Automatic annotation (TrEMBL):
It is found in: Cytoplasm. Homodimer. Residues 109-255 form the D-isomer specific 2-hydroxyacid dehydrogenase NAD-binding domain. It comes from the Bacteria. The gene is pdxB. Residues 299-364 form the Erythronate-4-phosphate dehydrogenase dimerisation domain. One of its GO terms (biological process) is pyridoxine biosynthetic process. Belongs to the D-isomer specific 2-hydroxyacid dehydrogenase family. PdxB subfamily. Pathway: Cofactor biosynthesis; pyridoxine 5'-phosphate biosynthesis; pyridoxine 5'-phosphate from D-erythrose 4-phosphate: step 2/5. Its EC number is 1.1.1.290. This is Erythronate-4-phosphate dehydrogenase.
Amino acid sequence: MHIVADENIPLVDAFFSDLGRITRLPGRRIDGHALQDADVLLVRSVTPVAAATLAGTPVRFVGTCTIGTDHLDLAGLAAAGIKTASAPGCNARGVVEYVLSCLLVLSERTGRDWRKLTVGVVGVGEVGGRLVATLEALDVHVLRCDPPRAEQAEQGFVSLDELIDQADVISLHVPLEVTGRHATRHLLDTARLDRLRPGAWLINSSRGPVVDNLALRQVLEARGDLQVVLDVWEHEPDVDIDLAVRCVLATPHIAGYSLDGKLRGTEQIYRELCSFLGRSADKTLAELSPSQGVGTLLLDSATPPEWVVAKALRYVYDVRDDDARFRSMLVAATGVTQRKEGFDRLRKEYPLRRECQWLAVGLADADGQPGTGTRTGQCERMLKAAGFSGARRHDLRG
Ligand SMILES: NC(=O)C1=CN([C@@H]2O[C@H](COP(=O)(O)OP(=O)(O)OC[C@H]3O[C@@H](n4cnc5c(N)ncnc54)[C@H](O)[C@@H]3O)[C@@H](O)[C@H]2O)C=CC1
Ligand SMILES: O=C(O)C(=O)[C@H](O)COP(=O)(O)O
């Protein structure tokens, strides 16, 4: 069996080499020509796959090691008898940590405490659902908007227009759907962007075209009060530089780029392929992936819990690093080609990032003894709510 795989799928050899011969290619260079004798195609989000691309090739299975599937023509591939698989939820936690980091930075920049704001989450699936759960566990007031779920008679949702009227912060987590009753392309158009509350924060880490980028640039030119964070862009990797400079934070589609998230994506597609082939999936991520955490961070259990949580979050992931790298690439690039290459390079060479679960947070008092008292309890509770499952009272005396 011949497997053609995007070169940016980690552990592809470890998982798939027993199943067949693997050819690794840059995702944007995978086309019909490269698949002439391929049986299996493993992609990431940058490779559009239509039935026409695979016509005349032996490909019978297409797996994307991502959550999003908008780059796959699912209906066309199914009609052509080609099995498709994706990796639901694989990097959802990374996106939640990205959004939490953005909230910390926006708080610092505006002087508004994010925990006292109303956060509107649009799209309450794998990512949005985890974000809602985390924010609510941190006692943040959340509004949920998900018309497809609301239509299933589920309770607790508001319409998008109600959310826009009431939310101080809007975070988008919908799939990109170009057609249909719940289409999301340009879900935020000029009319809705104009109606954002004064000083609203908008975070888009879903897909670029969910926000009309030209309209957003024009609205930002007129409204300096809005605080916008974009991780995803219309026409990626060709980023509108005039829009990027108007964003408080701008990053190159890396919200979900924890190593853990990428590895889970590889494992999920390995399992899907084994099931398609009728083979048992005998390899596991637990055996193949790095098992070590990112160390221990000692924090003073007598300091306010929100400081403790902010410090631990910054230690694990700080979106300002990605923002700085992206901006310096945009400034250094001369012309569109270099900007596009720079966008892809930042993603390909993305630094090691682990998730909060891997950081052991030790809570000790100023004398190095395990924290006691109400505040330590609050710190522990908030750390666990934020995802630091390894938070403990720590004794420095050994
Ligand atoms: N920037 C990044 O690195 C990443 C981006 N993503 C993007 O985030 C998207 C969401 O991911 P998941 O939560 O895992 O997807 P999901 O499919 O689990 O959840 C999406 C939710 O959006 C809802 N929805 C659909 N149309 C809607 C509409 N018009 N208005 C409001 N809600 C609507 C659905 O009912 C569903 O509950 C992905 O499709 C992908 O495009 C995902 C992972 C990483
Ligand atoms: O999983 C998704 O959906 C994402 O948006 C991924 O973060 C995309 O990563 P790449 O596939 O573009 O590496």
